[in-house]
Specification:
mainly alpha, single chain, 13 helices
Length: 308
């Protein structure tokens, strides 16, 4: 995530425009997180379709949506510049591959009634990002962040004992999204342009896969209402990412840090109260540890000084 210090009121020459930008950014980010939070409802509606096919449609129909946004912003020339850079294309291919794995696991997990596990994964994600920063960038953690990571690790142990194996869905989502965020920073291109470049790279293999399934009589696009449900995969994928990109530019990173818990909270609530997934004592303990970890982590962003 890029630095958002430029959105701070003290950095602006006059107060009112900065407050207006922050308010606009807040609503952009809020809508993005609400869309992510309610995404399981859409995924459950298409759960009768194989996960790989849904994933392919997410890619294919995201391309025109992202392309229209770039056209309206007048930033299509950025893509032409990116195509002249081998390094940019290679890095975009890597981030595209990682985010496609993340999307694929998420689609599959919702379809097989493991929504609560996906919520846990996105709760853990910011803590995994902190660990990656320490391991890969040499960033030092303060004592509260160390405790937060320890509590998250304890939650994973609780779930491992309860399930008789690692909660791989949660861990895979957390680590792939953290890796995506880490590598995405290396792309010398804006967030909207980067998203378009990623789905454009994935477009050909996704389209070939859909054509192959269709030619084998195994495609679902032309069955009943599936055609418009699958076309919606593009907007529901692209819209929150683009809205978040606009919001993040106008907000403090600490504000984004707190708001990022909206999505997994809604996902968990939908998993338990709408889909009827189990939420027994072991999960209550694990989620309690995660929430305590996130409270410490969030508190440390505001008040705790980094240890020297």
């Amino acid at each position: 995530m890029v630095s958002l210090s430029s959105a701070a009121p003290a950095a602006a020459p006059i107060g009112e425009p900065s407050q207006a930008e922050a308010t606009r950014g807040f609503f952009f980010a809020l809508v993005a997180y609400l869309l992510w939070g309610f995404l399981p409802l859409y995924m459950k509606a298409v759960s009768h379709i194989p996960s790989m096919e849904v994933l392919a449609h997410r890619v294919v129909w995201s391309v025109p949506v992202a392309g229209v946004v770039l056209f309206l912003l007048g930033r299509t020339s950025d893509i032409a510049v990116a195509f002249r850079s081998t390094r940019t294309l290679l890095m975009a291919a890597v981030t595209a591959a990682i985010i496609s794995v993340n999307w694929g696991i998420y689609v599959w997990a919702i379809a097989v009634d493991r929504t609560v596990e996906t919520a846990l994964g996105y709760y853990i994600n910011p803590l995994v990002t902190v660990v990656l920063g320490a391991v890969l960038l040499g960033e030092r953690l303060n004592r509260w962040q160390v405790i937060a990571v320890g509590l998250a690790a304890l939650a994973v142990v609780v779930l491992t004992v309860e399930a008789g194996g690692l909660p791989w869905v949660s861990l895979a989502l957390a680590f792939t999204f953290a890796a995506y965020g880490y590598l995405r920073k290396t792309l010398p291109i804006g967030p909207s342009q980067g998203f378009f470049l990623e789905v454009l790279i994935l477009f050909v293999p996704a389209l070939l896969y859909l054509l192959w399934r269709g030619s084998a009589g195994e495609g679902h696009f032309l069955e009943g209402r599936n055609w418009w449900m699958l076309m919606l995969a593009g907007p529901v994928t692209a819209a929150p990412l683009i809205l978040f990109a606009f919001g993040a530019k106008l907000l403090r990173i600490t504000t984004i840090g707190i708001m990022q818990y909206i999505g997994p909270t809604l996902i968990a609530a939908i998993g338990v109260f709408v889909f009827g997934e189990p939420f027994g004592l072991d999960r209550m303990i694990a989620f309690g540890l995660i929430w305590a970890a996130l409270a410490l982590y969030t508190w440390s962003m505001f008040f705790a000084k980094r240890e020297g």
